[in-house]
Each structure stands twice: as C-alpha cells, then as structure tokens.
C-alpha cells in the first residue's frame, strides 16, 4: 500500500482488544497527523504505538474499555480524545519523575463519560487550553485542581458527580478562562458561604460564557456569583429554580448578549431587573409562570437592542392588564420565537386555550369610565350613590359570607381537627414595616391576649445575628399557618414580594387553608403586581374594617386560624 502521502488513519469499529507493539511500524511515512481508534474494545492504551509518528497531532481513542496506560512522550500531539472509556483514575502525563510533560504541546483533552471519582491537581499540561471532564463521578472540586493550567480557556464540568456536593474556595483560579460549564451538576449554591459565592469566579475576569443550567440558585445568590464578570456575553440559567426576580439580581453586565432563563418558576420581576442588561440580543423566558407582561416589564433600552425573544408556554391571562403586550406582539420587529402557536391564554376560564393573537380587547371594554361620561347626570348620581353604599358595606358582606361558609362546612360534617400542637407558632405573620403598628397593637395583641394564639413576628421573634432569609426559612417551618397583611406599602416592597414567592410555595404544598390573607386597604392598579394578583386570585382574603362590622372581621379571622389545614376549601369571595 502506498502510504507516502497518508495523513489520516481511521481504524474504528474493528472490535480489537489489543494492538501489537509494532502495529504502525510498517507504515512507510512520517506524515500521519490523525489517528482514530474509536469504538473498539481496547483495554490498554500504549503511547509507544505512535512513537514512529513525529507529526501526530490528533489522537481519538473514545468508546473503548481503556483503564490503563503505558506512557511515552509525543511532543507533536495537540488533541487527545479519551471519552467513554473505563478510566477510574486520572492518568499521569508527567515523565522524568514529574519534571516534564509527555505532551508539552497538547491543547485539547477530553475525558468525558468515564468513571473518574476524584482528581488532584492537573499537572504537566503547559499548553492545555480546552479541558472536558464531564459525566464522571467527581463530587468535589478542590481549591488547587486547575491552578497549574495556566493557559486554560475552556473548562467543561457538565454533569460531574451527578450531584456535585462541594466546590472549595479558589477552585476556579483561572485568569484566562473564557468558558465554564457546570451544566446539570445539581449543585446547591446555597451550601457556599456568601463570601465563597462572591469569590468563586472572582479570578475569572475574562469569562465570556457561563452555563449554570440544572443547578439550584436563588435571587440572592446569583448576583454574588456573577458580579465581577464584566466580559460575560452568554449566561444560561435554565432550570435553576428561580422565582420572582428582584431589581438587583443582575449586576452591571455591559456586554451580555444571550440570557437564558427557561424552565424556571419565574412569575414576575421588578421593573428594574433588565436595566443593567440592555446589550442583550437574545432573551429566553419560555416555560415559566408568567401571567402578565406590561409596558414596564421590559425597558426601552433593552428592546432597542434585542433581536429575538421567547416567551412561549407561559400561562398568560387574557385580561385588560394584558392589552399592551398583545398590541406589542402584533407590531414589534423583534423575532418572536414559537409565536403565535405557543402563546396562549390559560385564564380566565372562558379564554383557556385561546391564542394570544386572537385576544383582541377593545379600548372601550378596558376603560369603562367612558360609560359614566355618556350617562345622564341623574343616572350617574344614582350609580355613584349605589357604589358608595356598596363600598361601605362590601367588606362586611364578604366577611359575613366567609364566616357563613365556615359554619356551613361544619354542619356538613367537616369538623376542623386542630393540629397546630405540632408547631411552635400558630402562624407566621408577613407584613411591611409601614403596617407594623397595626400588626403589633391591634392584630397580635388582640388575638394573643384574648384568644391564646402565638404568632411569629419579625421584630420580636427573629434571631439576632442571622440573616433575614435564614430567619424566614427556619421560622416558617415552625409555624402552622401564614398570615399575610396586605396594603399598598406591602405591594411596593421588593422584600415583601420575595416573601410572597416563599409563601406561594407553602400554598402549593399545603393548600389554601395554610394561608390567611388580610387586606387593610384596596390595592391601587399602579401597585398591583403579577405575583400579588396571582396570590389574591388563588386564595380567599378578608378585608379589615373599623366600626360596624369589625367584630364580624375578627370572628372570621379566628375561625380561619382555627380551621385545620386540609379541610375542604372555601371558594374565593
């Protein structure tokens, strides 16, 4: 066979168990650059097989059963593929008692999908730029694992350990790193201290691509991790369990172009969330819990640079608050991925399944004030008088009906079985600072002194020295129910919106009876947020009133607090 000009040799899929030592000695050429030995049954990889090939650059020995190596220096080798073998220990690529590298010019090394359980420090790779060790059994990344890889720019740790448990401080001390993938590691970043979260990637000043898909984050941790990544262009937060997005979740990211947040639990965000990511070209928010998008959801600066967006498969509400979004969908020049087929309504019931493009509310139907303008003055006066009477009595009527429902269920045999003895507190009270006086002086004092309830409240029961989020998490577990005191001040508070997110989880797990909502006042339209509307639409609430009807209000509160969790629900009033 004429081999003088042979540069590539593919001998895959031959079911070979071993190769003779002189396998390649008979090839009369020194020009071979690529050898592919994939999909055989090799147990041993002997690098001396290739000693007669001074120009070998690329060696692929994937999909074998290799577990041992015989070392030999190949100074010309630049790419080495050892994926899908039976390697249990990271091979040693040092020679001459660890002083020299067997592959001094190696740029690319892939050891993905092996059985490597632990790795020490990577040594003897002076030129390595790309390292892939995903799908191994590594459950801990040590602080010095990659320190010696001075030239490393791309690092893939996808699905290591199946459930990665520990990332030590200083594990990613890689100043030239441009791409990092921790995809599907199922790592709980809350296990890191706040200091460790902030320093985790602080050395990676040139990082361009970060993939955190398939891990566990929350809105307080993410800003610490990415706060120093000024060169970040691609950020993947798919399936990271994100909920409500507060205004500070994204720090200044001046060159970010791609942001992926699909498959989360996002149901709303602060109007300033996207103020620092206005260079975005692609935004993916599909498969979340978004009900309403209005004019304040996306800043103008973001929309000016955005080229494509996906909001598919969200449970949109076809109500008047959606009128801006419906209009924007029809006229925007931004590419709407999967529109219109996967943009449809889920509420109200008569619109369930209707495509958003077919929802066409009229300006008049969403602005009933015009009906009053064209009405005769006599009818207007009568209507206003009727409304005043109704508003005056509305709260008492609702509270009376609520209490009547409770008694009706009892008559039908649904007797409450109080099980609050298993908890330290009867209820955890969520409120904003502006309502503190009413909560302490009226609500807590009356119900604790006169009815024997024990409440958990922020200014009395939170542990000094522990973070607020830590206190909330711990004390919620000690509380049988949750009481939410709602007002306009509550609706405007970012911290209260975060607490709404937490108690929504409690409602989903334990049902509506686990929550008691008390409205101190009507929420104005400018303060009504999507998360708060969702909470009010899905959970019955009581309205506080002074004077006539106040006794009825307290009776309804007491009845609800004593109602067992799991009792057949009372329909929303």
From TrEMBL:
Coiled-coil residue windows: none
Entry keyword DNA damage: no
Major subcellular site: membrane
Domain TIR: 423-565
A molecular function (GO) term: signaling receptor activity
GO-annotated cellular components: plasma membrane
Keyword vocabulary terms for this entry: Glycoprotein, Leucine-rich repeat, Membrane, Receptor, Repeat, Signal, Transmembrane, Transmembrane helix
Matching PROSITE patterns: LRR, TIR
Organism superkingdom: Eukaryota
Pfam families assigned to the protein according to its UniProt record, in alphabetical order: LRR_1, LRR_8, TIR
Transmembrane segments: 369-391
Subcellular location, record wording: Membrane
Record InterPro entries: Cys-rich_flank_reg_C, Leu-rich_rpt, Leu-rich_rpt_typical-subtyp, LRR_dom_sf, TIR_dom, Toll_tir_struct_dom_sf
Family: Belongs to the Toll-like receptor family.
Protein name: Toll-like receptor 13
Natural source organism: Mytilus galloprovincialis
């Amino acid at each position: 066979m004429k081999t003088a000009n042979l540069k590539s040799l593919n001998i895959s899929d031959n079911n070979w168990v071993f190769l003779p030592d002189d396998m390649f000695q008979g090839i009369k050429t020194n020009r071979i650059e690529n050898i592919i030995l994939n999909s055989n049954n090799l147990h041993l990889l002997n690098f001396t097989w290739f000693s007669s090939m001074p120009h070998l650059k690329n060696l692929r020995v994937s999909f074998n059963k290799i577990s041992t190596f015989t070392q030999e220096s190949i100074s010309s080798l630049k790419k080495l593929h050892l994926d899908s073998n039976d390697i249990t220990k990271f091979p040693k690529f040092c020679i001459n008692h660890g002083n020299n590298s067997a592959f001094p010019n190696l740029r690319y090394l892939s050891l993905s999908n092996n059985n490597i359980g632990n790795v020490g420090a990577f040594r003897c790779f002076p030129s390595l730029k790309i390292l892939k060790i995903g799908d191994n059994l590594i459950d801990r990344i040590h602080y010095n694992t990659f320190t010696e890889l001075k030239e490393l720019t791309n690092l893939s740790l996808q699905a290591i350990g199946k459930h990665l448990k520990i990332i030590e401080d200083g594990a990613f001390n890689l100043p030239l790193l441009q791409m990092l993938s921790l995809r599907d590691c199922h790592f709980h970043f809350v296990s890191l201290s706040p200091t460790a979260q902030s320093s985790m990637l602080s050395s990676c000043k040139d990082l361009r691509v970060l993939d955190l898909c398939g891990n566990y984050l929350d809105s307080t941790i993410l800003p610490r991790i990415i706060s120093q990544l000024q060169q970040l262009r691609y950020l993947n937060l798919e399936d990271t369990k994100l909920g409500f997005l507060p205004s500070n979740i994204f720090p200044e990211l001046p060159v970010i172009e791609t942001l992926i947040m699909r498959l989360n639990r996002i149901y709303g965000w602060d109007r300033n969330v996207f103020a620092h990511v206005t260079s975005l070209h692609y935004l993916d928010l599909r498969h979340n819990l978004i009900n309403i998008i209005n004019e304040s959801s996306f800043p103008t600066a973001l929309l000016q640079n955005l080229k494509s967006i996906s909001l598919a498969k969200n449970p949109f509400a076809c109500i008047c608050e959606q009128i801006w979004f419906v209009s924007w969908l029809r006229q925007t020049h931004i590419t709407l991925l999967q529109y219109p087929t996967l943009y449809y309504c889920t509420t109200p019931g008569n619109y369930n399944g209707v495509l958003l493009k077919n929802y066409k509310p009229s300006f008049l139907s969403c602005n009933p004030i015009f009906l009053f303008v064209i009405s005769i003055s006599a009818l207007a006066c009568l209507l206003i008088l009727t409304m005043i009477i109704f508003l005056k009595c509305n709260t008492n009527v609702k509270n009376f009906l609520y209490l009547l429902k409770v008694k009706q269920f009892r008559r039908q045999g649904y007797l409450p079985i109080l099980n609050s003895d298993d908890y330290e507190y009867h209820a955890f009270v969520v409120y904003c600072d502006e309502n503190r006086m009413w909560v302490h002086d009226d609500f807590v004092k009356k119900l604790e002194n006169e009815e024997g309830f024990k409440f958990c409240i922020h200014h009395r029961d939170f542990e000094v020295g522990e973070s607020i989020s830590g206190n909330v998490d711990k004390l919620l577990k000690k509380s049988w129910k949750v009481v939410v005191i709602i007002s306009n001040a509550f609706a405007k508070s970012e911290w209260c919106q975060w607490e709404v997110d937490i108690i929504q989880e409690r409602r989903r797990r334990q049902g509506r009876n686990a929550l008691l909502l008390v409205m101190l006042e009507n929420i104005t339209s400018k303060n009504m947020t999507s998360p708060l509307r969702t909470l009010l639409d899905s959970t019955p609430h009581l309205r506080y009133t002074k004077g006539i009807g106040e006794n009825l209000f307290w009776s309804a509160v007491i009845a609800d607090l004593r109602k067992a969790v799991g009792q057949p629900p009372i329909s929303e009033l």
